[in-house]
Specification:
This is HNH endonuclease. This protein is mainly α. The chain has four helices and two strands; from the N terminus they run αααββα. The protein has one domain. Helices cover about 50% and strands about 10% of the residues. The model has no long low-confidence stretch (mean pLDDT about 80).
Length: about 110
């Protein structure tokens, strides 16, 4: 996990890689969109999901610090696959979300 200035260095490296390989970035984004679409259960409340994204946008505008909507349990992982629903979403600062990466959330029950 990267913290402090390391996160910004990794983020800058990722940005330059994505600019140099746009086809790979498009494929990665398409794969992510497909995973998210497949992870939406029929009972998901799309209005609540939209309000969570709107809340993150509002926090970004009000504070000047970028906020992300994070999946508490990752959509895709070697260990688990979470759902794209209101119960699995939280608003985090971009720094906290990028630091978390695709790791299982520490409060997640172990089975």
């Amino acid at each position: 996990m990267y913290t402090g200035t390391g996160v910004h260095a990794v983020s800058a490296t990722g940005r330059s890689y994505r600019r140099a390989a746009p086809a790979k970035e498009l494929a990665r984004c398409a794969k992510r969109r497909a995973a998210k679409k497949q992870a939406v259960p029929g009972w998901a409340d799309h209005g609540k999901i939209a309000s969570i994204y709107e809340h993150a946008r509002q926090l970004t505008l009000e504070t000047g610090e970028v906020h992300h909507v994070d999946h508490i349990v990752p959509l895709t992982s070697d260990l688990v696959c979470g759902l794209h629903c209101e119960h699995n979403l939280q608003v985090l600062t971009a720094f906290a979300n990028l630091s978390k990466a695709n790791h299982v959330w520490p409060d997640m029950p172990r089975g």
